[in-house]
Amino acid sequence: MIQGTGSSVGKSIITAALCRIFKEDGYSVCPFKSQNMALNSYVTKKGEEMGRAQVVQAEAAGIEPEVSMNPILLKPTSDIGSQVIVMGRVHKTLTAAEYRKEVPHIKETVKNAYNELDDKFDIITIEGAGSPAEINLRENDIVNMGLAEMVDSPVIIVGDIERGGVFASIYGTIMLMEPEEKARIKGFIINKFRGDIEILNPGIKMLEKKINIPCLGVLPYTQLNIDDEDSISTRFSNKKENDINIGVIKLPFVSNFSDFTPLEMESRVSVRYITKKEDFDNIDFLIIPGSKNTIKDMEYIIQSDLDKLIYKKHKEDIPIMGICGGYQMLGEEIADPKHIESNMDRINGLGLLKTKTIINEVKDTLRVEGILSGERVSGYEIHMGKTERFDCKPFIELENGKLDGAINEKGTVYGTYLHGIFENDNFRRNLIDELIEKKGLKKNDQNINFKDIKENEYNKLADMTRENLDMKKIKDIIGI
């Protein structure tokens, strides 16, 4: 089990690295995270919703993602409440206090999911959440030391040196644990190091002596094109301008920002996350992304005057695309008569598409394929809402007989419910070529294959991890 001194220290990526390494070494391996809090989710082949981080880890392990790898998914809908997804299906929307009361019942679900994987795989690489030193939450813990105890797993602690204070954070995390918890910790890893390792070594030796736990290696700071889990990702820092500049509205409840990873991999494209007026400068294409609370995010767009800037770009004939909640916002109205997302009955949309959406209690989670401009595309839907088109054409003809999305008469505004649409190489390539041609620039000579690039990145991650971690000690800890 990989635990960390805090959020975003590298637990997800190290878990993915170990999954790839064990796969390369001939073991059947899978990831597991009992409880994930994230707005970045995915739909399995069975139509079940799970956290995106475990999907990345499953890809690294070379296996099909399944919901048992992430039995509990919490999707924040407000500052105090989350939609609780249990084994891929909506359970309830609960406050933190309400959820804590349900944990004893959920614990059995977690154990059953783990046992299901344990029967099928040689190795399970478990990811913890946040920090195991949150002593106020230990009683009902099912994701850190509570889970390690439940499944009798050894633990490796990860600390992030880039934040500073890595020795204190590792030492403090361990010192806040009970003796039986400390006994589970078999090693620690220092992550995101830049500089001369010789300067760090004396501190490592001193820490090893103080905690009587070995260092298993120091991982260098490395830029990799692999989906991350947390919204505090560096992807949200605005990028330098490029031949093509794509703007994505950064909504308070933005979901599935991994939709834009394929665009960020394009060498001639810069993806900029928009929060203020200046971010709209020199944008060639504008995207309104998915949202976990469409009405609240629509309200944010209006109150922050971003709507006026969106209209300005529309008048300049800058193409505008909405995905899922963003598609709903492009329409004329979003209604929530049962107050599923908020206490508002309705809110005006941007009115750029002739559609209306009603939020309902049924959540659509399914994988879909279809035809767009003669090209086959695939993706997945995750939404609570039905959108009605009037006086506008659908965007995609789906194989299940349904029609998805909408497009305006000029073809400059369109929306879709399909997450992952930019992973379709031909669709993405044609879009970028159109934008390049519109600017009078030379078209791409090289085209990227998204799946191949992902595989190369997982291999690079595994190579870097092998080079810098003591894999023999890690295998000894596992017992292989």
Structure, described:
The protein folds into two domains: 2-227 and 455-478, Rossmann fold (3-Layer(aba) Sandwich), CATH 3.40.50.300; 244-440, Rossmann fold, CATH 3.40.50.880. Helix content is 32%, strand content 26%. It contains 14 helices and 28 strands. Helix 1 runs parallel beside helix 2 and helix 1 (11-24) crosses helix 13. The chain is globular. The model has no long low-confidence stretch (mean pLDDT 92).
Task: For the structure shown, list the relevant keywords.
Rossmann fold, single chain, 480 residues, six-stranded mixed sheet, four-stranded parallel sheet
How would you concisely characterize the structure shown here?
By secondary structure, this protein is α/β, with parallel strands linked by helices.
